[in-house]
């Protein structure tokens, strides 16, 4: 089997599919930040993000189907599936954040939400670079470290923002709305760290 595996070319198309998926992730993060800067056109932004999420779902499905069809994969099948799932999770959460924003009828965006959206845009960029460098362990480690730092920054923004919600005599409805938004944004930043952990695991295994 070892000799046979060497004779049959590995399906390198997975790397290109992952690059396409991370491009969608970065695009969705930028679109979410744009939504927070332009809440008056929330429906347009939500629809655009949903379109990206649909494309990402299609790519994730293509990756999973290709796992079954490929005789020799460049990395373990389980790792391919795990990375695709983690990337798709982030995009789903970005889409979910936009839809929740619309559902809650938020008209004025709080500054910490813009900060968290900025953290997500940066984390998405590092994910994109980490995935494209998946065969280079040192580069993956550098990008994972950046994502970890951004996750910690996001946690600090989240805790300060939630604390501020309960300061003084706030409007209970506003507290409910924004606690929900901040929780969703924090889950998205946490999911970026989930991608980084899978990336590092794959990179070390294949070093």
Kindly list the characteristics that best describe this protein:
disordered N terminus; globular; single chain; 207 residues; mainly alpha
How would you characterize this protein structure?
- The two termini are 22 Å apart.
- The protein is mainly alpha-helical.
- The chain is built from seven helices and no strands.
- The longest helix has 34 residues, at 172-205.
- Helices cover 83% and strands 0% of the residues.
Q: Cα-atom Rg, whole angstroms?
A: 19 Å
DSSP strand content: under 5%
Largest sheet: none
What distance lies between the first and last C-alpha atoms, to the nearest angstrom? 22 Å
Q: Regions with pLDDT < 50 over 5+ consecutive residues?
A: 1-9
Structural class, by secondary structure, is mainly alpha
**Total beta strand runs:** 0
Q: Could you estimate the helical fraction of the residues in percent?
A: over 70%
Average pLDDT level: 90
Number of discrete helical segments:
7
**Principal-axes shape call:** globular
**Oligomer class:** single chain
The SSE string, one letter per element, is HHHHHHH
């Amino acid at each position: 089997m070892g000799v046979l595996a060497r004779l049959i070319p590995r399906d390198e198309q997975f790397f290109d599919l992952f690059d396409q998926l991370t491009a969608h992730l970065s695009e969705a993060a930028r679109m979410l930040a744009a939504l927070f800067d332009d809440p008056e056109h929330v429906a347009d932004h939500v629809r655009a993000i949903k379109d990206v999420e649909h494309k990402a779902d299609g790519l994730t499905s293509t990756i999973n189907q290709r796992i079954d069809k490929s005789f020799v994969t460049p990395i373990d099948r389980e790792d391919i599936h795990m990375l695709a799932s983690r990337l798709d999770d982030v995009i789903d959460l970005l889409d979910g954040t936009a839809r929740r924003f619309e559902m809650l009828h938020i008209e004025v965006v709080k500054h910490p939400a813009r900060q968290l959206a900025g953290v997500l845009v940066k984390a998405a960029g590092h994910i994109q670079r980490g995935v494209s460098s998946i065969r280079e362990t040192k580069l993956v480690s550098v990008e994972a470290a950046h994502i970890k730092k951004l996750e910690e920054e996001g946690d600090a923004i989240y805790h300060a923002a939630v604390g501020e919600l309960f300061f003084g005599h706030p409007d209970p409805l506003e507290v409910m709305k924004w606690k929900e938004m901040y929780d969703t944004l924090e889950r998205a930043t946490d999911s970026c760290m989930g991608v980084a952990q899978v990336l590092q695991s794959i990179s070390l295994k294949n070093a």
